[in-house]
User: Fold Molybdate-transporting ATPase from Haliscomenobacter hydrossis.
Amino acid sequence: MDKLVSTLNCTLHLRDGQRSFELDVDFHLAAGELLALSGPSGSGKTSVLRILAGLESRAKGRLVFQGQVWQDHTQHIFLPPQQRSIGVVFQDYALFPNMNVRQNLHFALPKNESTALIDELLEVMDLQDLARAFPLELSGGQQQRVALARALVRRPKLLLLDEPLSALDTQMREHLQQYIQELHERYALTTLLISHHPEEIQRLAQRVLVMEKGKIVAETIPAEERKKGFLLRAIWMGVVEGKAQVKLGDNLLQTAVKGNEVLAYSVGEVVWIRMLSKDEFEVLPKTS
Assistant:
C-alpha cells in the first residue's frame, strides 16, 4: 500500500499582500490518480505544488511519495527538485527563447539517456513539424505543448500542472485538455492539476480538493469520473441493508456487499476503497 499512495502533511506560514495565514494540509495522492486542487486565488494551491516540487524548504511536516521520503523537517530530510521524480508545467511556459523545440526538450534530457523519447514526445504532441521552430515563432497552445513534452523528458512519476491552460482561449484550452488526458494515461502518471475552470476539472480530474485560506475545506469526485479503479481514502460508515457505506468528503457512497466478504471495520475508521465503476467500489482488506 505504501508504494501506491503518497501523503503530504505539512504547515507553512504564508503572506498574501497585507494578509498572512497558515497553510495546513493533510492529503493523499494515489498512484495513477489525476487530482485537482481548486479554490480562490491566494488559498495556498501553488504553495502545495511548490512543496511537492521541492521549491519550498520552509514547510514543516512530512512528504512521502510512493514509499520515498521527500521531505521531513523532524529528520532534516529535504530532497531538491532534481532528486524528485517530477515534471512541472507552469502557466507561463518557461521555454528557453534561444533554443528551438527539439533543443528545449533535449536540455531536460538526463545525461546518457537516449533521444528516442524526444522523438516519441514530438510525435505524441504533434510537434514533429515544429521541431526546429523557436518559441517566439509558436502560438500559445504550441508553446504549452512543448512545455508539457519537456516536463516528461525525465520520465517523471509525478506531473505537477499549475494552471497550465489559463492563458489560452476556450477552444485551445479544450484542445490541450485532450493532450493532458492522453499523456496522463499513456505514461501512467500521477498528476496534480491546479485549475480555476470547473469544466476543465470536470473533464480531467478523478478527485478534487477545494482549498480556502490554506486549508482543504472539501473533497469531491466529478460525477463523470467516478470510475477507473483508482484508490481513495474514505471513512467507514458500516453496512446498512446489505450495502457497505463509506463517506468520501461530503459524499456518502454505498455498494452491495458480496456474500463471502468480511469487512472488519469500526464506524468512523479510515478505509481504502477502489472505484470499479461510476456507482460501485470495493473496500480493501485491512493490512497487518
Observations:
- Residues 10 and 61 are 4 Å apart (CA to CA).
- The chain is about 20% helix and 35% strand.
- The first strand starts at residue 5 and ends at 16.
